Amino acid sequence: MGDTVLSLGLHPSAVDLSRYPEITQEMLSTRIAAGEAAMREAGFDIVPCQVSADPDEAEKMVRECLAVRPVQVAMIGAGVRMAGEHTLLFEHLVNLLNELVPGIVSCFNTSPETTIDALRRRARPGN
């Protein structure tokens, strides 16, 4: 049996796209959906969880997502980790996950397209 993965990232509406003028919110949503589909096709059981940039709102959403089913791995997206303005959010989410899921394993991508590679380093697919 494989690991269940919490696919945790910023909701596209929470991303500051002014840094990426070539990307729209719709394009980002499409890339995230394609990444989630690729995870499932690769045999990973995922619980998608898109959060606000506000740490309190993000915590509420993570708690709701974790109530869906137990997870063993957290795939934390680049949007949460790589923008300096989200450092406190990232720190809050890592500590929250460690509190709620003792022993959780984390993996990190650099874009929705590199998620499968990140998962293969740290998670076991179900099939």
How far the N terminus sits from the C terminus, by CA atoms, comes to 7 Å
The residue ranges in which pLDDT falls below 50 over 5 or more consecutive positions are none
In terms of quaternary structure, what is this? single chain
The number of distinct helices, counting runs of at least 4 residues, comes to: 5
Mean pLDDT: 92
Radius of gyration: 14 Å
Protein structure class: alpha/beta
Please report the total strand number as a whole number: 4
Largest sheet: 4 strands, parallel
Q: Quick one: overall form?
A: globular
Order of helices and strands: EHEHEHHEH
Going across the major beta sheet, what is the strand order? 2-1-3-4
Strand content: 15-25%
Instruction: Classify the helix fraction into a percent range.
Output: 40-55%
Notes on the protein architecture:
The protein is of the alpha/beta class. Helices cover 43% and strands 17% of the residues. It has 5 helices and 4 strands. The chain has helices spanning 25-41, 55-66, 78-81, 87-100, 115-122; strands spanning 4-10, 45-51, 73-76, 105-108. The protein has a 4-stranded parallel beta sheet with strand order 2-1-3-4, sandwiched between helices. The mean pLDDT is 92.
Give a short summary of the structure.
This protein is an alpha/beta fold.
List keywords for this structure.
127 residues; four-stranded parallel beta sheet; 5 helices
